[in-house]
């Protein structure tokens, strides 16, 4: 990728300190994919506002220069900011960023992902259609990774039957199974999936909660296959937050019961 002298839109995915005064920021562009950039002096005294602006989920416009893997970020301007991420929303937003950083390569163009990423961060920030936006992002990312799932035919070439159940094998597809197959029912990694849900997914009818839950399961299996042994820190972050949230809820309920 050559130097870019014209300002381009960039989505901030993640930032980390570099030297005493700078930041290395993972960004995502529409036509050049993921671009790691160096923002010189962003941490200097008097530039707190710049550092605060370059947060996860923010859409900026800037020039990107340099020929190395890490480019230089020049004259960044915020185009659209989020309401901020805290607790559960921070874990969700971190999940989006981490998938992009771990599954895409710098400089590889993924133009169809750009709008999905923006929509995801907006949905998480505003808490509107959050789960649907995340599932659609995951589907788009998997497609960009070359993972194409046939939701209308099983591995043997037979049409998916709405009344049958199937199990997913990553890299192969769906295999019809009998519900009395104990080997299927006893293994959580092979959850039987209803054909009706698979057909709904093929038509992108995702408004039903059960269908959306099926999409989550399928996406997770396929993403894990792409990650291999690589772990997602954002999942651990979400589990820790969820554990603390449940403890807080239990403590609050206990206090209410004691007052009663």
UniProtKB/TrEMBL annotation:
BP GO terms, sorted: DNA recombination; double-strand break repair
Entry keyword set: DNA damage, DNA recombination, DNA repair
Domain DNA replication/recombination mediator RecO N-terminal, first and last residues per copy: 11-81
Cellular-component GO terms for this entry: bacterial nucleoid
Domain of life: Bacteria
Gene3D superfamilies according to UniProt: Nucleic acid-binding proteins (2.40.50.140), Recombination protein O, C-terminal domain (1.20.1440.120)
Family from the record: Belongs to the RecO family.
Family matches, as NCBIfam families: reco (TIGR00613)
Entry function: Involved in DNA repair and RecF pathway recombination.
Protein name: DNA repair protein RecO
Organism: Pleionea mediterranea
Lineage, highest ranks first: Bacteria, Pseudomonadati, Pseudomonadota, Gammaproteobacteria, Oceanospirillales
Gene this chain is encoded by: recO
